[in-house]
Amino acid sequence: MKKENGTKPKITLFGPMPPFRGGISQYTFQLQKVLGKESDLTTISFRRQYPGFLYPGKSDFDPFFNGQGMGNVFYLIDALNPFSLVKAVNFVVKSGCEFAILSWWTLFWAPGFAFISSRLRKKGINTIFLCHNLFDHDSGFLKKFITKILIRNVDGYLVHSSEQKAILNSIFPDKIVLQNPHPIYQQFPAPKGLLKSRGRLELLFFGFIRPYKGLDLLLEALAMLNDPEIYLTIVGESWRDPNELICYSRELGLKNVEFHLEYTDESLVSEFFHRADLVVLPYRSATGSGVATIAYHYEKPILATRVGGFLDTIIDGETGFLIEAGRHDLIAERIRSLSRKSLEKMKPSIRNYKRKFTWESMVSKILEFHSIFCKKR
Questions:
Q1: Taking every annotated instance into account, which residue ranges of this chain make up the domain Glycosyl transferase family (predicted)?
Q2: Predicted TM-score (pTM) of this structure
Q3: By the 8 A CB rule, do 159 and 168 touch?
Q4: Does 114 share its domain with 253?
Q5: Residue-wise DSSP of 257-286
Q6: Is residue 2 in a domain?
Q7: Same domain, yes or no, for 205 and 123?
Q8: Which helix (H) or strand (E) is 142 found in, with range?
Q9: Number of domains the chain is built from
Q10: How far apart are the C-alpha atoms of 48 and 81, rounded to whole Å?
Q11: Residue 264 and residue 133 in one domain
Q12: pLDDT in tens, 14-70
């Protein structure tokens, strides 16, 4: 996108970037590569994302990141230095930025990014929050109340789910709220077929293991099925003691569960998805899921619950299956009805459907904000 004078808009993107790991970091990395083609883009990330004692995993750095393709990135913000927020604001103002995008995904960074947005707006720079999770997954009344206060000082919001859009429209009816599907992650390599399929069905649970994701329900469903021809692979770092999960699986008498409870290299991730017949996301609650887009990248159907963004991204019976949340019996019932052959037949629908989940579409929606702001000036 170019302005009338032929120059590209100057945009600043705030968010975690590699070598920090996790879905939000990968998202920001993929977005800045495409957005950078359509704008004069600067990305501001963290020197330190969280204090060590607050991060449940072993480390928040990706040991496999090779440092390639980073673009114009500045690591300015320090979780233990509030003055770094002021430094970031001054940096953006001096750069001549017209429009800033701030990632919104956790209450921990909400005060800092709300401060940055407020200061930039006072300097005449429009801002939007790119909302991955409007509220933390374990939010009670107080956390939601605080979030609603902090998130108001901005010019607009970009969300992935219709549920999140409806919430923001109800809270801030006078603000701009746009929606675009979560784009598909495309950085994962092609599989080599190193892992061979077992039994009649291969299931995959992938991603950080947290209570709201309902992995315990999936294990209970498999115990109910008691089918020696069904195999489950669990790949992801647990935010609790991983031994608790392994012990619970043993208590249920499950033998066909394969655990990989650590951060996994992308080349191995591709092998796990390639082997899977079905990706299972039995979440108790959700806003969106990057895991679903990885499943679509590898053209795998998804079994998920009727919560959050799954309602927007999964076509029941065509690209996956939707069931009521919190019911291990329904998970078991649906898995029982499936076969490798029936799931394979869903690939053409997934291949066609995933074309709408592009980063180019996401960038177009972002530039739509810029056009709106330009008209108001």
A1: 196-355
A2: 0.90
A3: yes
A4: no
A5: EEEE-S---HHHHHHHHHH-SEEEE--SS-
A6: no
A7: no
A8: helix 141-150
A9: 2
A10: 9
A11: no
A12: 999 998 888 899 999 999 999 999 999 999 999 998 877 665 556 666 656 655 556
